[in-house]
Amino acid sequence: MLRIGRIDYANCTPLFMQLEHALPEETTTIVHGVPASLNANLASGEIDICISSSIEFSRHADEYAILPGHCIGSVGPVKSVLLFTTRPAEELAGEQLLVTSESATSVVLLQILLAKRWGLSGCSLKTTSLSWQEALQQSPGLLLIGDRALQAASGNAGGYCYDLGHEWKKLTGLPFVYALWLINQRSAKGKEDALVQFSQLLEQARERIIPDAELLASRAPEAAWVGMQALADYWRNAITYQLDQAHLAGLQRFYLLAAELGLIQAQPQLTFFSA
Predict the structure, then answer these.
(1) Are residues 164 and 121 in the same domain?
(2) H or E stretch including 181?
(3) 87 and 155 belong to one structural domain
(4) What is the pLDDT of residues 167-202, one digit of tens each?
(5) Residue 225: which CATH number?
(6) pTM of the model
(7) How far is CA 263 from CA 121, 130, 149, in A?
(8) In a domain? residue 272
(9) Contact indicator for 178, 252 with CB cutoff of 8 Å
(10) Given pLDDT bands bounded at 50, 70 and 90, which one contains residue 156?
């Protein structure tokens, strides 16, 4: 049985809406969870494959393999990884900023941008579960990701809003990869055929997102608060799902800069699944 981790974020919805109907029940099961719990489940081998924060691979490079061809990324603005500030980013040196606990990758990306994009030093980061309204009363900056970022953006959180995908593109000229399909090589041993089938179904689902965006959005629960057309536009124009050479270059640059700043131990060598 191939055990697949599912994070209930809007960027994954168009994939899983299709996969849930296509995956064979006799050989696969889907496990729902928040990123932190699914990352722990993947590390322990309780699940075999999961769409996981890119930084997780750098922490388990000897144990994990990347499912080639697939990711959650963006080429420029991503719309759902946002830094809200009460004053311009260039004026935040030495400040304590509040960050989500939901994605370590986005936190590392923020640290890179603070140093390399805005030339800031002395900033500290603190995790928070406060609402964006409360958080911005306590701090001049707040990082949100995923559905909470989309919701805060629609509520005009803060005086300034920086899209980290857009800022990364300005810094490097490259796409950014927020999440990878990671495989625990130990727990997935003997499940190669199921992984090949899953990859094929995932590719088919990915290829239907752009032509079927409105149809998928009309059935998605997130449409109730994002709006159907806005959700379809988010999938079609902001999120990228293919791990191509440009995205791989962006991923390698991310790991390189993170290692240079001491945010990860070393730039990992990429290992890909092959049957």
Answers:
(1) yes
(2) strand 176-184
(3) yes
(4) 999 999 999 999 999 999 999 999 999 999 999 999
(5) 3.40.190.10
(6) 0.94
(7) 14, 25, 24
(8) no
(9) no
(10) low
